[in-house]
Amino acid sequence: MHLKNSKTVVIKIGSSLLVDDKNKIRKKWLESFAKDLKKLKSKNKEIIIVSSGAIALGCKKMNLKNINLKLDKSQAIASVGQIELMNLFSQTFSKFRLNISQILLTLDDTEERRRSINAKRTFENLFKLGYIPIVNENDTIATSEIKYGDNDRLASRVAQITNADTLVLLSDVDGLFTKNPKIYKDAKLIKKVENLTKDIQGINIKGITKLGKGGMNTKIEAAKICNLSGCDMIIANGLHLSPIDKIEKQNNYTLFESKISKLHARKKWIISSISPKGELTIDDGAKRALINGKSLLAAGIKKVSGKFNKGDHIKIFDINYKEFARGLSSFSSEEINKIKGCQSNEIEKILGYISKSEVVHKDDMVEI
Ligand code: GLU
Question: pTM (2 decimals)?
C-alpha cells in the first residue's frame, strides 16, 4: 500500500534471507523477490537493493564457518563472496530480464559530500539506463574505524543520498514489537511510529532481534537518519516468498513515518551545512533560469570568489550582489574560473576532460 506512492525505493536484504540455516541458497525466495521487483519496475519505480551476503557466501564457497571471524580474514572472505553474491543476483535476475549493477561503498563515500554527490549521480545515471544498482559495504577495504559494519545504516545513508521516498528493511521479524516477540506472547507489533523518541520509549530494542550484523538498534538508528531526510522507513518480515508483494497487500509491518518533506530536508541540509566556501555572481539571464527551476550553467557566471572544491557549499549572488541562492558546486573554483561565461559544449575542450554541464545542479540548490 505504502509503496504505491513512492518513486524511489531502497530495499535492504540481509544475509539470512539469501542463505538458510542449513547454508543453502534460498533460490526460490530470490526468484520471488525478483518477480516483485519486476512488478515495481513496471510501475516506473526506481529501485536500489542493499544486499548483505558477501561474507556468508564467501564462507560457503570456501567451506569456512561464519563465526568470530577476525577483520582481516572476513575482508578476504568478502572479496571472494562478493563475486558469488553478484553472480547469484545476475543469474536469478536475468531470468526476469532485470539488469543489475554493483556499487560498493565505504563510510567515507557516504559521509564526505563530494563523494556522496558522485555516488548520487551514478545512481541517477543507472536509473536512467534502467538498471537496478545493488549496493554493499566495501568490506574488503573498510577497516573497523571506517566501517558501517551493518547494512541497515548503510541503506539509510543510500536512501538519504538518493532522495529515496521509502527504505524497506527486510528482516526476520514482522517489525518493531512492544516486547521481544520471541520471548513474550503478548508482544504487539507497532504498526506506525510517528515520533521516534516518544513512541519507542521503554522498548528494549537491544534484545529484540539479531539478523546479520545489525539488530533492532541499528534499524532504529537507520530510522533516525531516514526521518531527518524526509524518507519513510519500513521494517517487514522478508522471510516469506514475494516479500514486497506482501507489504503491498498486507498491513503487517512497522512504518516509521518521516514528518518532514524530502525537499524541506534537503533544503535544510544545504542551508545549514558548514559555512559556504565561496561565491558565484551570476547574470540576469541565469537568475531567471534559476527562478524557473533550472540548473546553473557556466554561461551565466560572471565572477568566482574564494577557493573551493567540487561538492563544496557556495553562495550565489545576482548582478546587484544580493545573495540569491545556495548550493553545492559540481566544479572547483579553479575550474569555474576557466569555464565561466562559456557555453556548456565548450567545457570539455577547455578543461580537457568530459564533465557535466551544470555548475550547480537544480537538486543541489536552494533559493533564499
Ligand atoms: N557487508 C556484510 C556482508 O556482505 C554484511 C553486513 C550486515 O550483515 O549488515 O556480508
Answer: 0.80
